[in-house]
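Shipment paperwork, digital attachment
Item: protein structure file
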Amino acid sequence: MKAIEFQILGVGAWGTGFLNWNDLSDILLGYSEGEEGLAKAPKPEVIPANERRRAPLPVRLAVESSWQAVQNAGLDPVDLPCVFVSGIGDTQLTDYMCRVLAGENKALSPTKFHNSVHNAAAGYWTISTGCMQAANSVAGFQESVSLTLMEALVQCQTENKPLLLTFYDAPSSEVLKELLKNEDPFSASIVIAPKEWSKQHRNYIATIENQGCEWPKFNSIRALEKMYSTNPTAKIFSLLSLIAQTDDETKNDLNTISISLPLSSQSRITIELDYKSET
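Attachment content:
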C-alpha cells in the first residue's frame, strides 16, 4: 500500500491520573506519575446541561477529549469529519438491557435504550457542535486502535481535509470483566490533516505492511501500564508517546522514532516521523 503522509494538529485526553493532553504528555515522557483524586468523570461543557445529565460515561469521555483536541487544533468542529472508536461499546448499558430483557418486566428505559447504540458518542458530538460532516463509529475489540487509524488516514487522504479521531472506553460491567477487564475510564482524541497542511506541525508517514507484529511493549510507565493492557483503546498510548516525544524539544534522536501496530495476524501499520522533511 502506498504510504500516507499526514500531520497531527491537536490532541485531547482524559483518564485516570490526567485531565488533558498536557497531563498525559508529561506522564508519557516520564516527567510525572499522574495525579490521584481527580474527577471520576468529565463534564464536557459543549454538551447542553440537560443532555449532559443523561449522557452515559463513555459519551462524556469521548466528547470531552474531542473538544480538547479540536480546541488545541484551532479548528471549528462544524467542518471536521470524525471517526469514533470503542473496543466493545458501552458494556454497562449492554448488561442493563440484557438483564431487563431476560426478566419478566421487559420495559426498557427509553433514555438508556437511546444511549445504548454504538454511535451514541458520535451522535452527541455532532449534535452538540452542529457538525454535519461524515461521522463513523468503529468497534474492533483489541485491534480497535490500529483499524481506526487505517480507516481515518485513508479517509483524510482521500478527502484531503482534516479529520477528528476519538478513542474511548469506560470500565467494564462486572458480568463482562471475564472478557474485558478494563477498570479505568479513558479517552483520547487527535485531529489529523493531510501532509504540509500547516507549517507549524510535523509530517508523519504511515505504511501498511504484509507482516504481522505484536503490540509495542509499554512496561516503563507504571501509571499507564494497567490501562494499556486492559483497555482496547488505550493502545493509542503507543502513538501518543511518539507524538509526545516529537513535541518535546529535549529529544534529539527523532529519526529513530517509529511504531508498528498489528492490524491482523499477517499485517501491520507502521507510523514514523518524516524526519527528512525537517531538513
